[in-house]
Design a protein that fits this description.
Elements lengths: L17 E4 L8 H11 L3 E5 L5 H12 L4 E5 L4 H9 L4 E4 L4 H9 L3 E6 L2 H9 L5 E3 L2 H13 L8 E4 L7 H5 L5 E4 L10 H18 L2
Parallel strand pairs: 1-2, 1-8, 2-3, 3-4, 4-5, 5-6, 6-7, 7-8
Helix pairs in contact: 1-2, 1-8, 3-4
Length: 214
């Protein structure tokens, strides 16, 4: 596979491999939603860039929790947005694909990266561009068996996340094949949802993951 062309920051140690995907979050709702997630035990929060004023939300969350929580953006498709993300305090870059220019810029800015992959070819390509972790997406299509098959050819210790159609009810099945990181979107948050409901869902997800922890 060769040496990564543009190594990005290593994936940090998280007490739990849970990433909150807050698609559709608005800046006014960001403080309460982020606080609820952090209080429940989440240590990674992603605001997709197709949300309203995403960089404002990311900056707000980073100011409140950036010292202890991995905060960043999803659906990052343009190198210019990599700079905007870093400038507003974000440290995590999640994308649905592997883009060489995006990965190179993320490496230059010292960001943690999690590009989306589906096949063995894509997974190895992402690692060759220095990916910190891999986002198998949509995980609901691949399923645990599909991800397990691709993981067989990945370097030992590679961080693998299941994202897309995944809820706390699926943790055990994915964990059985070695997946320990999960991105939760609609099962955790929807636009307009009250912080209390998000907190309840977040606590349920934390409890489900803790129940299968080795």
């Amino acid at each position: 596979m060769g040496r990564p062309r543009t190594p990005t920051a290593p994936w940090p140690h998280l007490s739990r491999g849970l990433i909150a995907i807050l698609r559709g979050l608005t800046p006014d709702a960001a403080p309460a939603i982020a606080d609820a997630l952090v209080e429940a035990g989440f240590e990674a929060i992603e605001v997709p860039l197709n949300s309203p004023e995403p960089f404002a939300s990311i900056e707000t969350i980073a100011r409140r929790h950036g010292d202890t929580v991995l905060v960043g953006a999803g659906t990052v498709l343009d190198p210019h947005d990599v700079d905007r993300l870093a400038d507003c305090g974000g440290r995590l870059l999640v994308s649905p694909n592997i883009d060489a220019a995006v990965m190179a810029r993320a490496g230059a800015r010292g960001l943690v990266t999690m590009p989306g992959v589906f096949t063995a070819t894509e997974a190895l390509a992402a690692l060759s561009h220095g990916a910190s972790a891999l986002k198998f997406f949509p995980a609901s299509v691949l399923g645990p068996a599909g991800i397990k098959a691709v993981m067989a050819i990945l370097p030992k210790g590679c961080v693998v996340g299941a994202v897309g159609g995944v809820s706390d009810a699926d943790f055990a099945a994915y964990a059985a094949v070695g997946v320990r990181t999960f991105g939760l979107g609609s099962s955790l948050f929807a636009p307009g949802m009250e912080a209390g409901e998000v907190a309840e869902r977040a606590r349920r997800a934390v409890a489900a993951l803790d129940a299968i922890a080795p």
